[in-house]
Amino acid sequence: MVRRERWVALATLALLQIFVVVAGSYLLTHDTAEGPVSIASPKPTPTPLVTAGPVLAAAGDGALPAKGTLSSTLAEALGDPGLGKNVGGVVLDAKTGAMLFDGRATTPVTPASTTKVVTATAVLASVGADARLATTVVMGKSANSITLVGGGDPTLAGPRTAADMKKSKGDPYPKPASLNQLASRTAKALKAAKITSVELSYDASLFAGPMTGPGWKPNYVPEGTVAPVAALTIDEGRSLAGPRVSDPPLAAAQAFAAQLRKNGIEVDAQITAAKAPAGATELARVESAPIYALVEKMLTESDNDLAEALSRQVAIKEGQPHTFVGEAKAVHQVLRRLNVDKGIEVHDGSGLSTRNRITPAALASLIAAAASPSNPDLHSLISGLPVAGFTGTLDNRYGRSDSRPGAGLVRAKTGTLTGVNTLAGITYTAGGRLVSFAFMADKVTDPGAAVAALDKMATIVAQS
């Protein structure tokens, strides 16, 4: 029901966007600052994606933009020196898949965070939109021992975050599971069993292999770009003492022990890592928001930690090793089943890897497929895309004179690494036609100029 309500809201937004086009650009004259599982369902066998039909039929098909004019205008914009020497771009008709602009559309480019479009497609198609990630507590090997078991939910809110949420107005979207609640439920179960003192261990074995990805730069974790990838994490590995904790599972277990003590359970000072016994009795659990909501958050905020967790869930569901290598194999496995793997090479889920390569045509095709009414389970990919000038990573963009008319009309995923700037998304044209696009550059020397050029091109598409 929640997904349906959000989809209705998206349809309303689309109609509002058309109104904005008709009413005129004076509505958009504001200046904005420039700036930089539990998975219990059976393994799905998705059919190839269908791209026919726009996502919001209420808006109508509309007329196709004049191909020659669009191509010449975009070709000139794609030649902006701010984009550097390796640039690719494409515009597709979302209904038919017809290519309306080909600017080296099949050129592989480092995608940066537009990789998250691939991750979103794979996790929605494989794991499913309504699945949730569970963090549990089970009985340990001895009578008075318990084990905290991570299920791969990096959004699990620690004590500090939960307190902050309580003080804030309203709940965040999506509302995360709470470590406090897990401790309260665990204490209640223990007291019912007349246990008031325990030894605590933690199990983060659901994820294996290195905690940082292939092609990641060594400064990503120290600077706080991403936390070490682990199956047991609170607050996405963030810490008051620094950007990220070095050992997320231990930090989560220590915070859990503190909450148990507050709930009247004595916890032994020594907290150790240990695999939960097979078939152990479950004492308590909390579950994340559904996958579709996590996908929306990942895309809107360009959340690296969440992207890696969701990509790892694809590996689990697809029977691949629960590692970076396994998740990459699993994602490609899903894309092949969907017949959309051409032009995509990924080595992580977030796009931090400098080894990733994706063509503009592949990205635009995935977005067009997600917009099709024939692929309803992928629709949260569209609703998660930031809105130009208003939400997520586009909230402080589209304030320049050549991009301001695109504010509120363009929805797109951004991508940024050193030397890389990308933008892939969807918009209605001035004639009411739904189109998808991708513009990508990975030899950028002037990031500010590159961002301005990308936003300008997306606006050109929206006004075509």
Short description, anyone?
34% of the residues lie in helices and 16% in strands.
Low-confidence stretches: 7-44, 51-60
Quaternary organisation:
single chain
- The helical percent reads 25-40%
For the record, give the distance between the C-alpha atoms at the N and C termini, rounded to a whole number.
36 Å
What Rg is obtained from the alpha carbons, in whole angstroms?
23 Å
What's the tally of helices? 12
- Name the shape in a single word: elongated
Largest sheet descriptor: 6 strands, mixed
Strand content: 15-25%
Model description:
With 464 residues, the protein is an alpha+beta fold. It is 34% helix and 16% strand. The strands form four sheets. Strands 3, 4, 5, 8, 9 and 10 form a six-stranded mixed β-sheet that branches. The chain has a five-stranded antiparallel β-sheet with strand order 2-1-15-14-13, sandwiched between helices. A two-stranded antiparallel ribbon has the order 6-7. Helix 3 (115-126) runs antiparallel to helix 7, helix 3 packs parallel to helix 8 and helix 3 packs across helix 10 (360-370). Residues 7-44 and 51-60 have low confidence and may be disordered.
